[in-house]
Hints:
This protein is mainly alpha-helical. 73% of the residues lie in helices and 0% in strands.
Amino acid sequence: MTTRPAGFDAALLAYLPALRRQAKYMAGARHEDLLQDTIAMMLSLADKCRVETFRTWAQIMMRRAASNHKRAMRAEKRVAPTVDLKAAYSVATPPAQEHAADLAIVTEALAGIRHGDIVLRRADDELLREIGEERGVGREAVRQLEAKARARLFDVLNMKEANNGSSKR
């Protein structure tokens, strides 16, 4: 257990609102986690603090805690989620034949539509920026091309539906 210098607790309580504001600025929605980690780090290293330079020391502790948070978040992104295949298989349902037929109709219609490939790529979670870089245009231009292709797709599907006399989409 570390011994805290005289005045440390008072300085911490006085500076707590500023720490909270700094945590909100640095971590956004996860500011409470950052604040708690900072306070825990400060309390564990309290014997190394000089009360005269408390403000500077507290900011350094927050930056260190924020750096640890960023490192942990990057590590979380790298770790692939594990899936229990037996459990997933037990709750999985095979695609209905009707859905496969609908998908075939949509992909066939997209093949005949200008910029239909953008709609397919976006459905596959490709970013506007990536598509734009390939085409030499910006994200907004790709978004507009996608919107036009989607509108054209709906028109084509509605015409096919009207020609077939079907009431379902």
